[in-house]
Amino acid sequence: MQIEKSKKLYEQACKVIPAGVSSPVRAFKAVGGNPIYMRSGQGPFINDVDGNQYLDFVMSWGPLIHGHANQKIIQKIIEAAHNGTSFGTPCEDELNLARFIVDSYKSIDQVRFVSSGTEAVMSAIRLARGFTGRDLIIKFDGCYHGHVDPLLVSAGSGLVTLGNPSSLGIPHEVSKQTISLPLNRIEQVKRAFIDFKGQIAAVIIEPIPANNGLLLQTKEFISGLRELCDENHALLIFDEVISGFRVAQGGSPEIFNINPDLVTFGKVIGGGLPAGAFGANREIMNHIAPNGGVYQAGTLSGNPLAMAAGFASLKLLQDENSWEYLENLGSYLEKKVKLLGFNEKFNVSFVRQGSIFWFALDTNIPPIRSEDINAKSEKKYASIFNGLLKNKIYIAPSMYEVGFLSTSHNKEHVDHFIQSLYHSMECIS
Ligand SMILES: Cc1ncc(COP(=O)(O)O)c(C=O)c1O
To answer: Domain of 221?
Structure first.
């Protein structure tokens, strides 16, 4: 495969951008080779600078639920851009998007827009602390909530571990405000609430954890969190940056039938442009400036292009009943995998929730905690990734990242992917 232009661009980029990339996982460190420079995309396909076309299952890491360059969304962006790219004032599509979110999530009366998922989480954490007057936050190992200082904390072993930072540059005083616990172990959360009585502001979770593989949780665990938060007057935060408007119109709360106090959004709500949001009931949101004392602001927040793209994208999902289409396509993928016997033949576990999918190597039991993932499988994953790439199929360059289907994918695309994956796995086993 010819990727000479990509190679040259990458070499030049490494001189002026750390590791040549604007976000670490793009650097292909886990799979070898160099990142591929994309020039354009259409539907489920992306085209690189050397003229190769790939069937894409990364979908810009989740935002592109309608595929690349969906013409209805692009048209709205063009119309918005012609009218000016930013005013630093409210705009109509901001109201439209806010109404759509409020109508879709039972527990949300109001949302505030920001420009990324990280910002949404950072603001939600501050709001939870401001609202409760407490400092400590519980998170779960393997859940990623953006590169927010207090949440870049990994787990220690033991019953309750006061955090160790997993990035340099995070002051100990900050990381020790975070308690990181294993997923799906409600007794450990209970213990933390006893040990730190009256000090826990919030429990934050990706209800459908999709940043360390896809670690599907039981309903009992999520409802256990709801009960513990209620009993202890702490807030339950659902980080819906990936799952929001992807798994259902009402996201994870609809899937679990459990309402969180605070919700964070990103990815899909921006329709492919930078947008995030956090929302809650009126009482909680009243604590945000300028009504309340929790300060939060942003020059480009509620940007008219991002709001137009986000609103167009969500409207399309609703108007075309896309959640049903995506569920059916996901279920088709799952059936294909079963039919071909991946589990028995290759010792691989496929996991799926709606249009999010993932496969865990070297295990026939779907992992539910990060420690269940076999770290030694990385080499195998790299071979599979590179095998697929040669076949012009683009999946995430890390075995810990999930894949995404979009409304632009169809059964033929899924067939092609699954057959190529089968072939790649056959070659290495
Ligand atoms: C669950 C979750 N929360 C927060 C973030 C951070 O979002 P962003 O990358 O837009 O800052 C991500 C990013 O992948 C995410 O998956």
So the answer is: 71-319
